[in-house]
Amino acid sequence: xxxxxxxxxxxxxxxxxxxxxxxxxxxxxxxxxxxxxxxxxxxxxxxxxxxxxxxxxxxxxxxxxxxxxxxxxxxxxxxxxxxxxxxxxxxxxxxxxxxxxxxxxxxxxxxxxxxxxxxxxxxxxxxxxxxxxxxxxxxxxxxxxxxxxxxxxxxxxxxxxxxxxxxxxxxxxxxxxxxxxxxxxxxxxxxxxxxxxxxxxxxxxxxxxxxxxxxxxxxxxxxxxxxxxxxxxxxxxxxxxxxxxxxxxxxxxxxxxxxxxxxxxxxxxxxxxxxxxxxxxxxxxxxxxxxxxxxxxxxxxxxxxxxxxxxxxxxxxxxxxxxxxxxxxxxxxxxxxxxxxxxxxxxxxxxxxxxxxxxxxxxxxxxxxxxxxxxxxxxxxxxxxxxxxxxxxxxxxxxxxxxxxxxxxxxxxxxxxxxxxxxxxxxxxxxxxxxxxxxxxxxxxxxxxxxxxxxxxxxxxxxxxxxx
Length: 468
Known about the structure:
By secondary structure, this protein is mostly beta strands. It is built from two helices and 29 strands. It has a 15-stranded antiparallel beta sheet that branches. The protein is elongated and about 70 Å long.
């Protein structure tokens, strides 16, 4: 079927050494989320792997026992909104909604005050967990902290909001919030056998296992027997699961924006920027990389890449930042942002689609320098536009695209652990030109741009990546 990183250690370490402070960690309450049973006071909690310094990894559909340790802001006589003694625990998600459960209290008030609660992340049929969420208690804004997640000990080392990263069986973040689609096919086979027999006798004979027609004369009886048998019914069920999307990105022409150019505020884990958009220069389509996601070419989630006239301020960004994906580990020096990727609907014929994708984030792409890591070749890709074989070329032409909150519309983007590392590639097969009709938050392409957008060539492969 198929999705945050405020506490990523590598980013915080790099930023902590900078004079400028482009980002401030989310404030949190004194209670620490704990699914590390070896930690003091956490015995009895379900053991979960640490996904990053602010999130435990949790598979949807799995019921866990979790604890919040050191909730010194509670007095012990609280009552859950559902009625029983205890305190509300709110598992929050801007993607699939909040869920409130009743947590029981022990050793309250005081430093040992502990909340114990049970939680099952939704797994369909109508609501499915994805990306990441935050765990709060007592009230919606009273977020638990990551003091235990970061190093396994409650020692006051961290104070960012804590929660769960919702992962698949391979430990990868589930980026699509669409529940899996199940198709059931029923096949029934019926066979009919008819048997007719004739005999001569002095008496009338009947059968008890079939429909019988009897004709009698003074010398004979004719018995006609029909037998019908039905084979067993075979039911086959196939489930299609969407995974984190890879993207083929194509250069786009004819998509200049008229004056006045849009101005947007952009906030990602590296800083807060004000950017003036220039033109749309790329369209990125979901791709089936190396046969891993056959349904990708049919998916509607596209991304339009807007270049900038200018972007301010010029903030210092981290160097020697590790980035991991399916190709391996890369080390990069992050530089200023150069492009905004905007969720977009696409059609190959007019008019542009009316429905804009809502289950995919905006991304802010940063230039990179000093990139070190593997350069894979012979990668098969297939999007809605073409199939191709590509190879990664100049690593220093790559960009790191971070989940971003545009104009304050998606504050949870700063906690999303899934980045896109976009590689410049050489393709085996050439690409012609294709007119495209688009729609996104800036409007349909027929009114948004000064011309008719069209694609001209394959340019980049964007691969889901994380900052370990």
